[in-house]
Amino acid sequence: MKLTAKGFGSARLRAGETDKVFFDDDIPGFGLRVRAGGSRGWIFQYSIGTKQRRMSLGSATPESFKSIRDVDGRVKLGIREQAAHLHARVKLGEDPAGEKTESRKRAGDTFEAIAKKFLAAKKAANRPGTYEEIERHVLKHAKPLHGLQTAKISRRDVAEMLGTVRTNSGPVAANRVRSTLSDFFGWAMSEGIEGIEANPVAGTTKTKETGRERVLKEFELRLIWKHAGDDDHGTILKLMMLTGQRADEIANLSRFEIAKVEVQKKRGEDGAPDQPALEIDVIDLPGERTKNKRPHLVPLSAAAKALLDARPQRANTDGSLREFVFGIGQGGFSGWSRCKERLDERIEKDLGRPLEHWRPHDLRRTMSTKMGDDLDVLPHVVEAILNHVSSLQSGKRGVGGVYNKALYLRERVVALNRWAQHLAAIVSENVVSLREAAS
After folding, report:
1. pLDDT one-digit tens code per residue, 59-111
2. From the centroid of its chain, how far is CA 204?
3. Residues 234-256: pLDDT tens digits?
4. Which residues make Cβ contacts (< 8 Å) with residue 373, sequence separation at least 6?
5. Could you tell me which of 169, 171, 146 has the C-alpha nearest to residue 157?
6. Core-binding (CB) domain spans which residues (predicted)?
């Protein structure tokens, strides 16, 4: 029979039949499937080698013979035209049913789905601070890509997304997101993710960067300290102000890294009396926790030690004490973005305008600058505090580094105590207890 809008309704099951396909006389493989329960549906059936394929083409209604245009202007062919098109593809050696199955499979390979696997791999291979930045790039900045099939993401998709990041967060952020995405697509290809044959990040614009020189003004330090609060995030920022250490080094601080060490006796120069040995409180960072992979001692001023002593000792689910000073769960503190947004909101409300863009690492640069400019701390002592052993100012670069093994520990103690007093004076309008602890 010929399956037409007027004639297909005459197809009926005989007594005892429960399921039958009525094939069209003109289009090979095009059929109407009728079931005893009353359902009727279009099918297309064909052979690929020795295998039989059958595709469902939807419910059989008179309207299915009409070609229609959807709201996006795309035309959906009538059922006979669809079947004729499928037959033509089979004659060319294609496998429409197999391609449809593969397409449906790939539809689940969205950027968001593949990104979860990528982040799991990166979490195991990176330090917490680095991982958090990668996670922010993928989950926040690359959100416009989440619903797209990974294999179909084009260079234009990536370029438009990076343009948005560049506008909203600046060129440096856009470059960092670009690097993360390039790493993502490279990883996806190495993992054999279907359909990804090239990296769409290649060829997109990379903005020229200049070194960041942001040094916070005193009123900015005061506002940050005032509104930081006493929670994990606020305490970490205050410790970064007092010690000049990196964000992830403080955020992932272990209680076992808070220690006491002895500063050796020092002979007086030019007839001056000897300086006796003394015991000091420090953060003792092992090499695997520092950027340059070198162990690092951070002398603690009284103010810094007071902040650490005030932290409650949290317990794990089994009742044992947590290793980490900050954060919850298995690791140290996370959630930088959310906490900083809230801090910036509090500062803006107090100041009456947003504070010029800043980031936690600026606290480190600010301490270093002010130690040299305001407190006359010698450059090699500042560099020792920052654990910059390869800088020219450290005195340990090149040949000098072979012979100069000095820790300058006593000088660092003096410098950090002096800085704590200076910082106390800066924020004393709001924080009297810091001045008292640092004196």
Report:
1. 999 999 998 887 667 788 899 999 999 999 888 888 887 666 555 555 568 89
2. 20
3. 999 999 999 999 988 999 999 99
4. none
5. 146
6. 109-189
- Model confidence over 333-387: pLDDT tens digits? 888 888 999 999 999 999 999 999 898 989 999 999 999 999 999 999 999 999 9
Task: For CA atoms 116, 336, 233, 342, give the dihedral sign.
Answer: negative
**Tokens 């009538």 label which residue?**
78
Secondary structure, 3-state, the chain: CCCCCCCHHHCCCCCCCCEEEEECCCCCCEEEEEECCCCEEEEEEEEECCEEEEEEEEECCHHHHCCEECCCCCEECCHHHHHHHHHHHHHCCCCHHHHHHHHHHHHCCEHHHHHHHHHHHHHHHCCHHHHHHHHHHHHHHCHHHCCCEHHHCCHHHHHHHHHHHHHHHCHHHHHHHHHHHHHHHHHHHHCCCCCCCCCCCCCCCCCCCCCCCCCCCHHHHHHHHHHHCCCHHHHHHHHHHHHCCCHHHHHCCEHHHEEEEEECCECCCCCCCCECCEEEEEEEECHHHCCCCCCEEEECCHHHHHHHHCCCCCECCCCCECCECCCCCCCCCCCHHHHHHHHHHHHHHHHCCCCCCCCCHHHHHHHHHHHHHCCCCCHHHHHHHHCCCCCHHHCCCCHHHHHCCCCCHHHHHHHHHHHHHHHHHHHCCCCHHHHHHHC
Retrieve residue 238's tokens: 């205050």
Report the sign of the C-alpha dihedral through residues 387, 391, 394, 395, in that order: positive
Residue 224, Cα to own-chain centre: how many angstroms?
A: 24
Residue 210 token pair: 């200049």
Contact 22, 31 (CB under 8 A): yes
- Over residues 134-148, the pLDDT tens digits come to 998 999 899 889 988
Is the pLDDT assigned to residue 434 strictly greater than 50? no
Type of residue at 276: P
Domains of the chain: 8-105 (3.30.160.390), 111-190 (1.10.150), 223-438 (1.10.443)
Tracing tokens 């090979």 back to the chain, one arrives at 28
